[in-house]
Amino acid sequence: xxxxxxxxxxxxxxxxxxxxxxxxxxxxxxxxxxxxxxxxxxxxxxxxxxxxxxxxxxxxxxxxxxxxxxxxxxxxxxxxxxxxxxxxxxxxxxxxxxxxxxxxxxxxxxxxxxxxxxxxxxxxxx
Length: 126
Fold this sequence. Notes:
Layout: E1 2-8, E2 11-17, H1 19-52, H2 58-84, H3 91-119
Antiparallel strand pairs: 1-2
C-alpha cells in the first residue's frame, strides 16, 4: 500500500492508496505515455513524408495503382501461360514467375503503405 502526503490546493493530504488505486494510476500514466508517443510519431511521419515526398497527388497515386494492377496482370499471365501450354514449366519459367510475384507483392505492399500514410494524415493528397 502506498501513501500520499503533502498539500493539495492548500489543504493537507494524507491518504493511503490501495493496490487497485495504484494500478489505476499506473494505467493512466501508461495511457498518457502512449498518447504522447503517438503524437510524436504522427509529427515525425508528417514532417519527414512531406519533406521527402512533396509531390504526392491524385495523379501519382493513380499511376501507382495502375502499376500495381499491371504487375498483378504480368504475374497472372505468366502463371496462366505455364498451365495453358499444359506443361510443368521449366526452371526458367518458374523463376520468371517467382520474380513477377515478388515484383507484384512488393509494389502492392508499397501501395498499401501509401494508402495508410494518407489514411493516417501523414500526407495530404491534392
